[in-house]
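ok trying again, last paste got cut off:
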Amino acid sequence: MADFNASSGLSTIFYLTGIPGYEEAHHWISIPFCILYLIGILGNCIILHIVRTDPSLHEPMYYFLAMLSLSDMGMSLPTLVSLFRLLWSISREIEFNTCVIQMFLIHTFSFTESAVLLAMAFDRYIAICNPLRYSTILTPQRIAKIGAAAFLRSSLFITPLMIRLAYFPFCQSHVLSHSYCLHQDIIRLACADTKFNVIYGLVLIAILWGFDSLGILVSYIFIVRSVLRIASQKERLKALNTCASHICAVLILYVPMIGLSLVHRFSKHASPLVHVFMAHIYLLVPPVLNPIIYSVKTKQIRMGIIRLFVPKRIHSTWG
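nice, full thing came through this time. structure:
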């Protein structure tokens, strides 16, 4: 029976949902989505290119920023094909295998991004509270290990949920709530005992997000204590300003993430538009806003963008 259920699950076709009530306008709705995806992809690729090619940015803060950009794209790009196939009326269908891969990437990179934000908080803590040891603590080798650990932690913890899905029969409606696959959305369609997935998923969120958010909070408590000891108000503001971009990145990841989880857990009878709205904010806001925030707030990134797009002769004239 287990083998039958597994093979049945692997051959299952699910049907994605676009914007309920606005199906006739899907072609027009695809335009703003296309713009948002282009902004997110272009912005993060520019960040990665600048960090890679500019030797002055080969520092811990910018390595972590590159990791953040990779995590942002890892979250949003897996949904690109399924979303536009749906909005352009090509197909609503998505196979089970494709759905699982999409879920794995979305959830893995969302947890990875949370871990990267924790690492960035630690980076700011070292830079402000222990600047003399900054370069010796955060060496390139150690940063690479942190990035690898963040990804491995997320992927290993999410794998049991994905494996267990293969053994669920889906005898109810195969219509999903969104234009892509989410674990909390697909398990409600299973005709089986999903307690393990529900409890494990909640525990996973509580442990990983809880650990990361607590670490970020503790880092900022020490940062604020250290900043308050600085006599000059100008120096205090300068120190806190280096944290502004990171605080914004934390908020634009955690607020939509928590909001989407709450909607799925406690607002099952809410309008479908609420679910759709929260789901797309969760995936599109971080990759779109993070490059913009860091470009505006970080002088080195801003200057790198200017050097990239402004001809060298004009740039040397300005200099």
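cool. The CA atoms of residues 55 and 97 lie 42 Å apart. Residues 1-9 have pLDDT under 50 and may be disordered.
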